[in-house]
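Homework-ish question, so no full write-ups if that breaks the rules, but can someone show me the predicted structure for this set?
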Amino acid sequence: MTVTARPGDPVITPALVAEHGLTTGEYDRLVAMLDRTPTFTELGIVSALWSEHCSYKHSRPLLKTLPTKAPYVLQGPGENAGVIAIGDGLAVAFKIESHNHPSAVEPYQGAATGVGGILRDVFTMGARPIALLNSLRFGSLDSARVRYLFAGCVKGIGDYGNCVGIPTVAGEVVFDPAYEGNPLVNAMCVGLLKEEELMLAVAQGVGNPIIAVGARTGRDGIHGASFASEDLSEASEAKRPRVQVGDPFTEKLLLEASLELIHSGHIVAIQDMGAAGLVSSSAEMAARGDVGVVIDTLKVPAREEGMTPYELLLSESQERMLVVAKVGHADHVRAILEKWDLTAAVIGEVIAEPVYRVTEGERVVAEFPGIRLVTDCPMYEPDARESDDIRTRREQDVDAIAERKEEADPVWTLTELLGSPTIASKRWVFQQYDHTVRTSTVVGPGGDAAVVRIRGTDKAIALKTDCNGRYTYLDPREGARIAVAEAARNVACAGGRPKAITNNLNFGNPKRPEVYFQLREAVAGMGEACLALGTPVTGGNVSLYNENPTGAVYPTPVVGMVGLVESLRHITRSAFSTDGDAIVLLGNNTSEIGGSEYLQRIHDVVAGHPPRCDLEAECALIDALLDAIAEGAVRSAHDCADGGLAVALAECVMMERGQQLGADIDLSAWSSLPTRALLFGEAQARVVVSTPDAAAVLATARRNGVPAAVIGTVRSTSESLNITIGTSRISAKVGTLANAYHDAIPNIMLRSASQLDVALASNAVA
Amino acid sequence: MKFGIITFPGSNCDYDAYRAVVEAIGQEAVYLWHKDHDLQGSEVIVLPGGFSYGDYLRAGAIARFSPIMREVVAHAGRGAPVVAICNGFQIACEAGLLPGALLRNESLKFVCAPIGLRVENTSTLFTNGYHENQVITLPIAHGDGRYSADDETLDRLEGEGQVAFRYVPNRNRPGDSCNPNGSMRDIAGIVNEGGNVLGMMPHPERAVDPLLGAPDGLPLFESILHRVHA
Amino acid sequence: MSRYKIAVQVVPRRGLLDPQGKAVADALHSLGFSNVASVYVGRHMVLEVEAADEGTAREQTNRMCAQLLANPVTEDFEIASVLSA
Amino acid sequence: MSRYKIAVQVVPRRGLLDPQGKAVADALHSLGFSNVASVYVGRHMVLEVEAADEGTAREQTNRMCAQLLANPVTEDFEIASVLSA
Ligand SMILES: Nc1ncnc2c1ncn2[C@@H]1O[C@H](COP(=O)(O)OP(=O)(O)O)[C@@H](O)[C@H]1O
Ligand SMILES: [Mg+2]
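A: Not a homework solution, just the prediction itself:
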């Protein structure tokens, strides 16, 4: 059919093309594909679909190298979420997604709608969401703007998930000046489904109606996808009207209605209208099914009058879904939505002709051949070169950095580290999240991984997000390996066997060789670790252009790990609990201090080699730990991460305020190591275990080839954490450590508490 | 005994209440849709937690007009038991089943935490399974839990033994502020004059399984069973 | 039938704790607006209503406030303005 | 110095979704007020301010709104009235 320009639409000029973020090469490609000049609507469509956010044009070639298979992987990358089988005919769908750019502009709505989007990705698979997680990065809390972003994102995440009634069970928050202008907000959702109820977003069946369901389409968020594909600048401020407002109440109705729809048998496919809204959802569903579709924009329920096809196609209004129903079943679909007070409108159809066509009533306003709109997107493999500056930092001899005089008392150092917002308790955050709704959260936030039971079985899943961006900055490959290993370790500490990951690659502008180098190396490292640990990648999200004129964020490949706890008896907590238990260290201490929180917090230095990640050792450690847990020998397990062994031990005695214990520790076996490395170095593959049966733990460790040693005893009557190293003895009051750890973030946030409360009041519905 | 669990658009603790009734005390439960006009013979009605109608305008304000609420009010009027938890408490106040109102937490923040409570009156339909002055721990999860009423109402509630639960310091966390929302006179839960309608902000239905922590909500459900069967 | 644009204000009853008002006042002080003596925060609603005349529109709005828009236990309401739209 | 009582209204920016207004409108409809065409819900704030004159009071309030009381991304504000108190 002939495509005709709409009266009143702008004429295509080089300036307009540039404004749409297309390069000349990309524009030429478009013209070649169409064999004519595109219409304004077509230009908008391509600008969205070929944006980084939708097309992965700088990352797809790299992502292809990741391991994605295992016998239990039911759905790998490419769908709305990945799915793994967990036995008993049940499966778990999970995915992580970023909302970095929207959150930088409007933290509350940006973060809230991020949660909304990831929930939809999971329930469109036919899975009922059972847990939410997040991974957050902000600049230093010393800045009032950062406090506002932090408070706004946390409130946005909380209000949305709380209202929908999905517990937010775990996450991480890191504060570092590297994220000053570019906060990272990644949200992860996990859902449960019966294997046979898995639903894919593949359009099929000529004549099947295409139905828009959920909220009406407004002018919000137009070009959000391309917005997420450029650096933040003054100009992005001007793009503020693109902000989308979330409505968790409608989402909850949409969730229930969608699950009912999927189970009803009336539909063949369903997909969230996320980034680039209607156009990307319809084009992607068509491409997956390799079918033609036609959409009539006049039939799309609009919130405002006079919306153009361009706007209706590109709007990112929230809480909407696109459904392909069976021929003749549209009325059933409508009836189900009406029960939930939602609307459904037939807006198009699957057609035999291989085209992607958009009409406005009679007029054809856009038409692309076949599915080339999706498949013809250019792919790039830019130059990669490591930054000299970063290499120099990595090669710096950090062991030569002289101790500060205060460090003569390691208790001072320990207290400083516990009070570092990155290490300190995140209770201020997760107290705003409902983590007990749905009565399945056996282990909530506060320790290592969260554990959510699977009703009707003796199983549970263990969940955690992790990444240390400073490591990845200093050495992207090693850092990404560590991100996977740390997440796996956390899951194992809770009693779960690591099964699969989803990931969120948060990087700077890939057109810069230093950034593309980081991306390439990090993906390689992640792949190596996933292969070694047997945790395939089932999906993820790429967020590039996280930079501003002062520089890029640390490369931050966030890992969202799902583990399976085979029996509820295996569920393990992090804190010491019982007087007289032996404390065993699994793994070995080293002299490494490069890239540590210690160097950053105490010396303001970001340098050195990050700790070495020995994947074989990590696997053995996880096996040993899970064996010991299965034998019933482990009372608690906590991994050593930020702040090293001393911080891990301190957390074990006081992470639950009011349930504090003491401990006597003897690390004399390592007295040859520099004290600061022994206490605060971040050597990998280490876990602190408390046990009533040290001999059993040691034997199991030995069997698995894991170094292990009894390093102390839990003391319920003592109020101190005592550490002996050879002739020196360190004694810290547990109460003092607890105050440093638990009060750090609340005290900082008090500084602008009332202003934050006011600034966020407008959003408060909860 | 049959429990009817009301589901409003936006309810999200209906499932937990259902599980608690069926699994923890082995009774029958049915979900009742907000547009229904029939309690299906339920003896005990549960108004569950959540965000009915998104809590837009005021928590509970819109839900109170749901068709089913007419039946619930009539049920309560007949002296039959109604348990209103969290958002249910807010709805019950809006509907006039209980006096007072629940306002935004004084901290202006949502709070999810285990909280210490003292059972103030063990003679009610809902609390007879606890012992005098028993201190229990239940989860809370709300943003609008600040119970407020005029002094006269508060005096009457206290005088008539209608205060069922009060926030107290948690044994395990000395020094922690005990009242999580700034409610007047530390009130966490009340019963109506007839003693057959309970409203409370904490979630007893989330505390019935030892796997998830102290099952301190269980005696509440058992109390209803004892009394109604007695 | 004409269309009216009606502004309604719902404010917390005096004497009740108004944490929002307090937060606003504190925040303004800490931003240097020390000359702010007090603040209270309520809801502002604008309704577009079809009615035969202004009197009917007003009367209806009063009923909406009494029934739904304000909580009689804790809030007072006021019709601030009625404009032909 | 005189004291002024200033009423400020903050409303969601037009074009942005106002889920609260929509929920209230739907609720009014189901209560039988079918003649309600639309509802917007915003905040109503009353500030008591000390200032040399009305102009100064107004100008200060404008700054308070721009800096703090309204979210520049999602809301518009208006000074509804300034009264001598
Ligand atoms: N944003 C968040 N949301 C929910 N829980 C969080 C968040 N940040 C941290 N937590 C919780 O706090 C605890 C400590 O987190 P973290 O310091 O990342 O642990 P680890 O060092 O073991 O990886 C974990 O239980 C984690 O789930
Ligand atoms: Mg850990």
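Now go work out the reasoning yourself. Hint: Chain D has a mean pLDDT of 93.
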